[in-house]
Amino acid sequence: MSTPGGVRATARILARGDGRGGTSLPVLEGGGPLAPRRTRGSGAEARVMLVGAMSGPLGGDRLAVEAEAGDGARLRIGSAAATIALPGPGKGDARYDVRLTVGDGAELHWLPEQLISARGSDLSVTTRVDLAATGRLVLREEQVLGRAGEEPGRLGSRLTVRVAGRCVLDQELTCGPGAPGGWDGPAGLAGHRAVGQLVLVRPEFAEAPPAARVLADGAAIMPLAGPAALVTAVSPDALRLRRVLDAALAYLGTRPEARLRA
Length: 262
Hints:
By secondary structure, this protein is mostly beta strands. Helix content is 8%, strand content 52%. It has one domain (8-176, 191-261). The chain has helices spanning 238-252, 256-261, and strands at residues 2-3, 6-17, 23-29, 34-42, 45-52, 62-69, 74-79, 83-85, 94-102, 107-111, 115-117, 122-131, 136-145, 154-163, 166-175, 194-201, 213-216, 219-223, 228-235. The relative contact order is 0.11.
């Protein structure tokens, strides 16, 4: 829905175990710039691609994605292209809310392409994930401050993950014009223009968590207070950031005892 203050739109995705070892998608709804499309899955996993139906988010837009992997379901969500936050024709910031729910024995992969903060934009992103005790999650977020040779807009992001009602991660980052001082200093991004995080939730991490360690220049793994681990990374550009996060995911995919010896 488009209003004088911007577009209001919500995409909804619901995955359910089909009782035959597969995953069905009884709900697949889009709106505004958010158009979810089912793609060919693999095994028991259903796959959905978010396709940009129009430019956005622009100033004043209010966009949301609500996705649920019900008990026993396997769901992978990606996006067809990077999301670019742009200044709108009117005043006001844009908001993008992501709400993910993972049931018992279910697995959700949230793997969108990069979010690019263009000059003059003002975007707040909130991502909240609620998992049942035996739910599994792979979540990747990548933020790029400005296009090539461009100063960034203002970008605020908050990521919250709860497992069985217990908060295991609640972090917030604000960058660009008007952000608190120091965001680009040595204790912040240190001049880098791409920042990302990878969150993995696996029941086996409760007994065998990955050890805290530096993976590469500007990237580190940290076990969380629960069956989860966080990888944070900064990089000069989006391509190198993706390579670091892909390497981290491959490393965390090894056997728990191998991680403990590493």
